[in-house]
Design a protein that fits this description.
alpha/beta, Purple Acid Phosphatase, chain A, domain 2, 5-stranded mixed beta sheet, 10 strands, 29% helix, globular
Length: 202
């Protein structure tokens, strides 16, 4: 089975489209996206529609959670202001779709237990960065059984095996050099093949 992991979209539809096109030749694949969907409000509505019909499994990041919950208080600062601007561009169906997402979801595919989350396996308030100590990752594994955990929110991408489980931090989808980056996992190989793949935008 092929699994394609998308980093934070941040509203970049061109990057998302480039990554989808570049990986379409892999054949049937499970597409995972770990939050950080919205950037500029101008792209929010079209992006929400695209994601709703893409078949990609998504979870909420902090901005998406504020948008869905309509929490735009002044004390929320820049993030709340950004969420309010995004919310103003969405229709009711799009907000309802966003509200149905959670910060974490679990799926079982091909006999594998997969956790998709923004934050860590145990809480949305803890981000697992690339340099997280191994005991910290091991505690995630002890709290919940899984074969693969995709944990969004970290600044840098990583893929690490700990106690027989694969942890992936997808980072950002676009890195500013004209490429979109995804992580492709081939579970049909032993050991699993994990590859960070560049997809040219445009």
């Amino acid at each position: 089975m092929k699994i394609v992991v998308f980093g934070a979209l941040e509203g970049n539809m061109d990057a998302m489209d480039a990554a989808v096109r570049a990986t379409s030749g892999l054949g049937p694949a499970l597409l995972l996206q770990a939050g950080g969907l919205f950037g500029a409000p101008e792209t929010a509505s079209a992006l929400a529609d695209r994601l709703r019909t893409s078949g990609m499994l998504c979870v909420q990041g902090p901005v998406e959670r504020l948008v869905a919950g309509r929490r735009f208080t002044a004390k929320g600062g820049d993030m709340a202001a950004r969420a309010a601007a995004v919310h103003a561009t969405l229709n009711t169906a799009q907000v309802e779709w966003l509200n149905a997402l959670r910060w974490k979801r679990r799926c079982d595919a091909g006999g594998l237990g997969i956790v998709l989350c923004h934050g860590s396996v145990t809480t949305r308030n803890e981000v697992l960065e690339a340099g997280a100590p191994e005991p910290r990752l091991r505690r995630q594994r002890e709290a919940e059984a899984f074969d693969l955990a995709v944990c969004g929110g970290g600044a840098e991408p990583y893929a690490r095996f700990v106690d027989g489980a694969l942890f992936i931090g997808p980072g950002r989808l676009a890195d500013g050099d004209g490429s979109a980056w995804v992580t492709v996992v081939d579970t049909g190989r032993s050991p699993w093949q994990v590859e960070r793949t560049a997809c040219k935008i445009g």
